[in-house]
Amino acid sequence: MSAAPALPPEQRLMQLVFGKAVTQAVSVAARFGVADHLAAGPKTADELAAATGLHPGHLYRVMRLLAGLDVFTADADGRFGLSPVGELLRTGVPGSARPIATYVCDPWSWKPWGDLAGAVKTGGPVFDRMFGEGVFDYLAKHPDEAATFNAGMTGFSQQAAAAVTAGYDFSGFGTVVDVGGGHGSLLLAILRANPGVKGVVFDAPQVAAGAADAIRAAGMGDRCRAEGGDFFAAVPAGDLVVMKNIIHDWNDAKAATILRACRAALPASGRLLLVELVVPPGFAPHLSHVLDLEMMVLCDGKERTEAEYRELLAGAGFRLTRVVPTENGPFSLVEAVPA
Q1: pLDDT of residue 328
Q2: In the predicted model, what is the mean pLDDT of residues 19-30?
Q3: Annotated catalytic residue, options 37, 55, 248, 289
Q4: C-alpha 89: how far from chain center
Q5: SS (H, E, C) 18-31
Q6: Per the CB 3.0–4.6 Å rule, which of 95, 120, 238, 269 could disulfide with 158?
Q7: 160-338 belongs to which CATH class?
Q8: Does the domain formed by 9-91 have CATH 1.10.10.10?
Q9: Does the predicted TM-score (pTM) go above 0.85?
């Protein structure tokens, strides 16, 4: 099969300009569980509208866009089905992106993007200026929105778990501390793959409560516990500290404060492992470039290059030892030791 012809520049530009339509369309499908309703087989837009309570004509137009982008399939009779991409919008499947696709269009996440220009002009995050507080302070006060966000982070962790456990040898560590570990999805995967290892999920108290439930549900209570606290102040002691997509949430000064707390919790023989999207050299498309702007808008964080991680870690008492790309995914494992 020959490749589709390249679009003329003006059409390509218009696709980029109206990319907001794609984000919102995917979010609508996620919010109303469209993929769940297609799990048993293809349906027309009228059937989907009856199942979801949506307007059939408007839903058809959303589905037509998403079918053209391979999020869903469509046949000549106008019946929509699940593609491999659309499968990830189902509830509860491993690595489900449904919560992420939902929360990106929740007002707290969507509205700040309307002033990306303000972030670029001022050098500060839009969210703080728009809502009068930082994003994590806001989520702590809005449990319903935080629940969707935390579910999204769990899905993100599930997507990363297989790559992380395959890409790093955890077997030699007595206790692994997952700092900012959410509901424990990544740490539980590490413990399942390494029966001799124990673990601690450490996060804000309201998040750690959800981690405790997940640990009990997984039957891991004898090997793992959840602990609440403030990672700017102190973190639990262990042999290996893991952080997935935590350091990218913060500017260099705040990230260094978190890293110094981790350094204080580790023995001289300890290790630090950051699971992050390390920005590669050059300008080829990479997910880190997109999420770098997400960090810019929401929380004054950033995605970093290897050189930037090396410098940041050195300032917090660590020496970067290696960066290991994971297979079949955008994540890299940034390993460091106490300096």
Answers
A1: 75
A2: 98
A3: 248
A4: 15
A5: CHHHHHHHHHHHHH
A6: 95
A7: alpha beta
A8: yes
A9: yes
